[in-house]
Amino acid sequence: MTTFLIGFMGSGKTTIAQLLAEDFIDMDYVIVERIGMPISTFFAEAGEGAFREIESQVLEELSQNEGVIATGGGIVTSDDNRRILGNAEAEIIYLKSDFDTLYQQISADTTNVRPLFIDKSREELQEIFETRAPLYEEIATQIITISGKTPEEIIKEIRR
What we know:
By secondary structure, this protein is of the alpha/beta class. The chain has helices at about 15-20, 25-35, 40-45, 50-60, 80-85, 100-110, 115-120, 120-140, 150-160, and strands at about 1-5, 25, 65-70, 90-95, 140-145.
């Protein structure tokens, strides 16, 4: 079976995926390999629309795999992506948190620079968060609230 981890940037999708399976797939890494540059550079050069097209292609391909897949935070913004996820015989786990916690985590993460974080104000990011939250919930087969929990506690909750 395939397990997709979804959630807003900073929710720990990659960290949790690593703990769930040694051979997990990080969609952002697959995309970086495909485009041959960091996502932030691609965003600046080609724009978000071009990135979302590639993201959809990669999601379609990965939906045929088995295992644990950490998606990008914006995966739910596309109708096609929500359709792909909805049609996949997969568990879709939404790592849910409040915006303030996520914003603190994104701000503290200097190794994973996110294009939207660079380009948007806190208020704009919160608006994006509020737009995406119902989309995550709509397609999730399991919702795990992550605020105040260690990765190990989150894993225990997923495996229940």
